[in-house]
Amino acid sequence: MNYNHIVIRYAELALKGKNRSQFERRLQENIKIALKPFPNVKIERTYGRMFVQLNGEDHELIAEKLSKIFGIHSFSIAVKVENTLEKIQDGALRAITEILEGNKTFKVSAKRANKGFPIDSQKLNYEVGGYILENTEGLTVDVHHPDIEVKVEVREVATYISCGVYKGSGGLPVGTGGKVVLMLSGGIDSPVAGYLAMKRGVKIEAIHFHSPPYTNERAKQKVIDLTKVLTEYGGKIKLHVVPFTKIQMEIHKVIPGNYTMTIMRRMMLRISERIAEQQKAFAITTGESLGQVASQTLHSMHTINEVTNMPVLRPLVTMDKLEVIDIAQKIGTFDLSILPYEDCCTIFLPPETSTKPLRDKAHKYEEKLDIEALIEEAVGNLDSFDILPGIEASKDFEDLL
Amino acid sequence: MIYFDNSATTKPYKEVLETYSKVSEVYFGNPSSLHTLGKEAEMLLDQGRDQIAKLLKVNKKEIIFTSGGTEGNNLAIKGTALEHKNRGKHLITTSVEHASNYEAFAQLEKFGFEVTFLNVNESGEISISELKDALRDDTILVSMIHVNNELGSIQPIKEVGELLKDYPKVYFHVDHVQGMTKVPISFKDCYIDLCTISGHKFHGPKGTGVLYVRQGVKLFSLLTGGVQENNLRAGTENIPGNVAMAKALRLSMGKFVDNKNHLNELRNRLVNSLREIDGIVVNSPDNGAPHIVNFSLPGIKPEVVIQALGERKIYVSTKSACSSKLNEPSRILMVTGLGQERAESAIRASFAFENTKEEVDEFVNALKIIFLQLKEVMR
């Protein structure tokens, strides 16, 4: 293994002007947390770039982690060498040798961030390219569509040589944009909504409505597992499990069938707002997509949204189901989401649901509910806990393993 | 008691048995059940799998639980052959495989596959150039034992992996059953696609094992039914066994790190003592595994020696336990070119970390006495 570094390029951070260093610091912190399982790596930050010193750690495993961190535009596995032509030539040759198989053409793209380096970029391309040609067989130069692009970056203290670029997740570092609460049902949509919200730099806390004994422990575990997947992108996430059985029973008792879903969603939104206020979050995120089901028609959203003054972020609002599924598969939540456990949205589903509920009627029906008391009780009995990335050995199992 | 038959099987650690018993009693749910008991069992199995993956430095998804070495080898070999037969029907292995590999290939030959068995030198090692010459356009699998179970010979897995790296259509399977926790290899650095491990060879329970299946490698499933083990092996998971194996692996790997040279010391002590005894020849190569010493007493039936040692509560074996009941000279020793006489009179002593120098000395003394007595009777 000749590669000893990973060069990280930032996404939108470059646009952040005066706040830039704050964004960079947060990104560095997030990278540090994600790379905790690799004790030997060191992360250095310079203006415009970050460098992970591998110190013998597996670059493929690290690349997998980095590809999930928001705020990274791209990264490359690199060889770090001293700023002399000989060392650069030698490093470039070592770097390209490692990925030679099946490739026939290459080009060298040299860049001097360090203008003090005596050889200019053009000349460096020529010198390094020539050296590679002399010392390999079957390789030719193609400056337009090369199989391999050997990037040579001459910086102040050292030169970094890389071949091949990994795409990052883009977006902004999680934690730079404040906090939102995410209504997490266990379906396909809400984890994707959480992922997309985090992409814009916000931290999330998840809220799940649990109706034992009608929804079982596995449904709850499924949400815990989904949250765990999201932690790979956003670090530690707090999950609030709301006891929802009593509210559902009450609704079932006093609200006409075609409005139970509407009133249930209004109650959920009220509770989410209450939790958001307590946790100093400034918006509620949901997986709603316009027209997908009865609760997500424009009429429905209008009637349900009435109960909160908080911004409700709907990252999926314009997406088709297939687009959402694509993302769910990419981020690793899909297989969990399709596990067939009943959740509180399906369990009391009435035979008919109004697709055009009205605010007036909702008000009238809700008069039969002691809304404040129900909310108080639910929020008072929250089960809140932190979920951390990676599998934490359950204490019960520790002595067994 | 002196137990020097650790290549046949090892004594489970006490902690491993405690785990086995507690898991059987408390977490007996079926991990596929929907209720709480099932969920707990599933979580426990998941953590065991995660622990094994971390110890082997691979992804959790690449760990397939099996019933041991034989199943792992069969799944790897037949699974690859049957899944990819449209790409080619040529397979390569060595002439010094364990029976579970060897017989799987013999079966495939009956199904119309063509198998090349690579030769070995006196040390029991294959030659890379012979392997290179054997590779063809229709080769789909190279499979070999890492540490030979009879002689302790070590195949050049790293070199083989590096050679096969340039043959993307050829899968590389390693039978690592004897090597695990004694002769470590990195699956990634050796470009291994499939790797077999058996729990009872490192103080885990019998009936447990792992087949490492690199992500992206497709296998034909030999046991169909439920969707367990990534659809590769149907059947309710052996939770107590697998969890106990995860514990055994952790403990055994810990012992290796703490005490890397201990087995080597035992081995050198035994080999040096044996070489001083007239009439005994050491068969294991000097650069072999640290826990296996194979030697012959030409002219003497090894069963007699084993019985006599057994009376003194010293336990060793002839050849592989799996074939020791067949009354034939060792196939492995024969192909290594050691000759019929040595192949007929071979004895194998194999160590675990718990064994001591004192035990080696006691074994050598007992052997000397028995050897002298037998020489008088048998000649």
From TrEMBL, chain A:
<dbReference type="GO" id="GO:0002937">
    <property type="term" value="P:tRNA 4-thiouridine biosynthesis"/>
</dbReference>
<keyword id="KW-0963">Cytoplasm</keyword>
<dbReference type="GO" id="GO:0140741">
    <property type="term" value="F:tRNA-uracil-4 sulfurtransferase activity"/>
</dbReference>
<dbReference type="InterPro" id="IPR014729">
    <property type="entry name" value="Rossmann-like_a/b/a_fold"/>
</dbReference>
<feature type="binding site">
    <location>
        <position position="287"/>
    </location>
    <ligand>
        <name>ATP</name>
    </ligand>
</feature>
<dbReference type="GO" id="GO:0052837">
    <property type="term" value="P:thiazole biosynthetic process"/>
</dbReference>
<dbReference type="InterPro" id="IPR049961">
    <property type="entry name" value="ThiI_N"/>
</dbReference>
<dbReference type="GO" id="GO:0004810">
    <property type="term" value="F:CCA tRNA nucleotidyltransferase activity"/>
</dbReference>
<dbReference type="Pfam" id="PF22025">
    <property type="entry name" value="ThiI_fer"/>
</dbReference>
<comment type="pathway">
    <text>Cofactor biosynthesis; thiamine diphosphate biosynthesis.</text>
</comment>
<keyword id="KW-0784">Thiamine biosynthesis</keyword>
<dbReference type="GO" id="GO:0009229">
    <property type="term" value="P:thiamine diphosphate biosynthetic process"/>
</dbReference>
<comment type="function">
    <text>Catalyzes the ATP-dependent transfer of a sulfur to tRNA to produce 4-thiouridine in position 8 of tRNAs, which functions as a near-UV photosensor. Also catalyzes the transfer of sulfur to the sulfur carrier protein ThiS, forming ThiS-thiocarboxylate. This is a step in the synthesis of thiazole, in the thiamine biosynthesis pathway. The sulfur is donated as persulfide by IscS.</text>
</comment>
<keyword id="KW-0820">tRNA-binding</keyword>
<protein>
    <recommendedName>
        <fullName>Probable tRNA sulfurtransferase</fullName>
        <ecNumber>2.8.1.4</ecNumber>
    </recommendedName>
</protein>
<keyword id="KW-0808">Transferase</keyword>
<keyword id="KW-0547">Nucleotide-binding</keyword>
<dbReference type="GO" id="GO:0000049">
    <property type="term" value="F:tRNA binding"/>
</dbReference>
<dbReference type="InterPro" id="IPR003720">
    <property type="entry name" value="tRNA_STrfase"/>
</dbReference>
<dbReference type="InterPro" id="IPR050102">
    <property type="entry name" value="tRNA_sulfurtransferase_ThiI"/>
</dbReference>
<dbReference type="Pfam" id="PF02568">
    <property type="entry name" value="ThiI"/>
</dbReference>
<feature type="binding site">
    <location>
        <begin position="208"/>
        <end position="209"/>
    </location>
    <ligand>
        <name>ATP</name>
    </ligand>
</feature>
Automatic annotation (TrEMBL), chain B:
<dbReference type="InterPro" id="IPR015424">
    <property type="entry name" value="PyrdxlP-dep_Trfase"/>
</dbReference>
<protein>
    <submittedName>
        <fullName>Cysteine desulfurase</fullName>
    </submittedName>
</protein>
<feature type="domain" description="Aminotransferase class V">
    <location>
        <begin position="2"/>
        <end position="363"/>
    </location>
</feature>
<dbReference type="GO" id="GO:0003824">
    <property type="term" value="F:catalytic activity"/>
</dbReference>
<dbReference type="InterPro" id="IPR016454">
    <property type="entry name" value="Cysteine_dSase"/>
</dbReference>
<dbReference type="InterPro" id="IPR015421">
    <property type="entry name" value="PyrdxlP-dep_Trfase_major"/>
</dbReference>
<dbReference type="InterPro" id="IPR000192">
    <property type="entry name" value="Aminotrans_V_dom"/>
</dbReference>
<dbReference type="InterPro" id="IPR015422">
    <property type="entry name" value="PyrdxlP-dep_Trfase_small"/>
</dbReference>
<dbReference type="Pfam" id="PF00266">
    <property type="entry name" value="Aminotran_5"/>
</dbReference>
<keyword id="KW-0663">Pyridoxal phosphate</keyword>
